[in-house]
């Protein structure tokens, strides 16, 4: 899955998440495998998707062991 962060004045920056989804449990686990120049610092971060408790809604969590003051847009 590739996430695009758009800005009207420039081409969009992006990060790509790769991993595996279990249809039996509904869980996903993976990591960020690629990123545009602005987000190269977050490559190799862990990624997981969990249920929010609302049917059809999930939360993508990106956990990075670096400085906690760095955030995506």
Structural write-up:
- The chain has 73 residues and is mostly beta strands.
- The protein has one domain (2-63).
- Helix content is 0%, strand content 52%.
- It has no helices and five strands.
- It has strands at residues 2-7, 10-21, 28-35, 46-51, 58-63.
- Strands 1-2-3-4-5 form a five-stranded antiparallel sheet, with no helix packed on it.
- The radius of gyration is 14 Å and the shape is globular.
- It starts with a strand and ends in a 10-residue tail after the last strand.
- 10% of the residues are buried.
- The mean pLDDT is 80.
List keywords for this structure.
5 strands; 5-stranded antiparallel sheet; mainly beta; 73 residues
Portion in beta strands: over 45%
The residue-averaged pLDDT reads 80
The profile of the biggest β sheet is: 5 strands, antiparallel
Structural class: mainly beta
How many helical stretches? 0
Written as H for each helix and E for each strand, in order along the chain, the element string is EEEEE
Write the layout of secondary structure elements.
Layout lengths: L1 E6 L2 E12 L6 E8 L10 E6 L6 E6 L10
Antiparallel strand pairs: 1-2, 2-3, 3-4, 4-5
In short:
The chain is an all-beta fold.
